[in-house]
Amino acid sequence: MTLEAIRYNRGSLSILDQLRLPHQTTYVPIKNSQDGHAAIKTMQVRGAPAIAIVAALSLAVELVQQQGTSPFPDAAGAVKFIVASLDYLKTSRPTAVNLFDAAKKLQALVERVGDRATTGEEVVDAYVAAAEQMLVDDVKDNQNIGRFGAEWLLQQAPDKVQVLTHCNTGSLATAGWGTALGIIRDLHKAGQLKHAYCTETRPYNQGSRLTAYELVYESIPATLICDNMASALMQQQPIAAVVVGADRVAANGDTANKIGTYQLAIVAKHHNVKFIVTAPSTSVDLNTASGKDIHIEQRKPNEVTTLTGAVIQSIDEEPKGDVHSQLIRVAANGIGVWNPSFDVTPAQLISAIVTEVGVVEKAEGSDVFDMKSFLTAHGKL
Ligand SMILES: CSC[C@H]1O[C@H](OP(=O)(O)O)[C@H](O)[C@@H]1O
């Protein structure tokens, strides 16, 4: 059983508060789209697929609740409310495209159902069923990504492999299983993983707090490194691949992912290490021609000037059980800060993009991917 980041039953949603991991395991109730918006914006839940699903389900629980107390008088009222709520949810975070993709699909669905429905209940039921299906589909998609990615990598490097990953792409970033971390799970299950390395992923430390936690939880042989140790690692260890997730893949394959991904791709190229992007097709944005059109989220300076963690008395002490995380200021007062949450890795530096329907590679001699043809050929458009 992998970690459960999202707990959902019709009418009830709670999420594992990722700001308190790994030291505290606390589930936060999400009762409506306001709660969903706040949880996404403050990063209690994060990761491109997880954001989309929590947004969709936060509105689903609100609608179920409302239907039980003060039902919509008609179908048009329900459609109007849902569309306005989705528009609001889309303002929570800007870079991961999955949220916008989910909102677009859900809006199209309720408008379609609303055209022929006679009651608000029919519209609500259709919305709730579709949001629930997204949760189910994401787990399946991740499992396929893991399988395709592991198979592809083992074709390139048939011996047991060592891989490096960045940020968090596991059960905590998705509906379950994970994308890049899904590949690591599959390699491990197949007895083909020699070792996994994960970066800390400053400033939010999704690597040291979340990926490391998942790797330990799953008993996968793994080592944590600071972000600035990646080149030395690739210089000294045979690393078969860097495997990362994606927040948005442009039509040409340029990929926005957690800040620091781009520098890993450059280092991988220098050391002749495969660089694998993993992304469900919902992360592919064909309306974005290339990476320069991707809106990169800027986050608050205090994420860089501070660290969150368990306070301990000595450097060797290991915090036990649920301990309170505290915020510690590490930077000099008065220093200016630049804090982009993501960067864009050019397609040229990416070896393959692994999706739930297969692996995309560049045509011979090309520097870019043809995501549109790939998705069309696999029935995704
Ligand atoms: C499986 S998508 C994970 C993706 O989301 C992360 O961003 P954030 O923690 O800011 O939501 C990161 O870019 C990961 O690769």
From TrEMBL:
Chloroplast found in the keyword field: no
Naturally occurring in which organism (per UniProt): Bifiguratus adelaidae
One of the record's GO cellular component terms: nucleus
Molecular-function annotations in GO: S-methyl-5-thioribose-1-phosphate isomerase activity
Principal subcellular localisation of the protein: cytoplasm
InterPro entries, sorted: IF-2B-related (IPR000649), IF-M1Pi (IPR005251), IF_2B-like_C (IPR042529), Initiation_fac_2B_a/b/d (IPR011559), M1Pi_N (IPR027363), NagB/RpiA_transferase-like (IPR037171)
HAMAP family: Salvage_MtnA (MF_01678)
UniProt enzyme class: isomerase
A Pfam family the protein falls into: IF-2B
Family membership noted in the UniProt record: Belongs to the eIF-2B alpha/beta/delta subunits family. MtnA subfamily.
Subcellular location: Cytoplasm; Nucleus
Catalysed transformations (reactions): 5-(methylsulfanyl)-alpha-D-ribose 1-phosphate = 5-(methylsulfanyl)-D-ribulose 1-phosphate
Pathway: Amino-acid biosynthesis; L-methionine biosynthesis via salvage pathway; L-methionine from S-methyl-5-thio-alpha-D-ribose 1-phosphate: step 1/6
UniProt-listed SUPFAM superfamilies: NagB/RpiA/CoA transferase-like
Enzyme Commission designation: 5.3.1.23
Site feature location: Transition state stabilizer: 167
Entries under NCBIfam families matching the protein: eIF-2B_rel (TIGR00524), PRK05720.1 (NF004326), salvage_mtnA (TIGR00512)
Function of the molecule: Catalyzes the interconversion of methylthioribose-1-phosphate (MTR-1-P) into methylthioribulose-1-phosphate (MTRu-1-P).
Swiss-Prot/TrEMBL GO biological process terms: L-methionine salvage from methylthioadenosine
Active-site positions on this chain: 247 (proton donor)
Record carries keyword Transmembrane helix: no
The entry's keywords: Amino-acid biosynthesis, Cytoplasm, Isomerase, Methionine biosynthesis, Nucleus
Name this protein carries in UniProt: Methylthioribose-1-phosphate isomerase
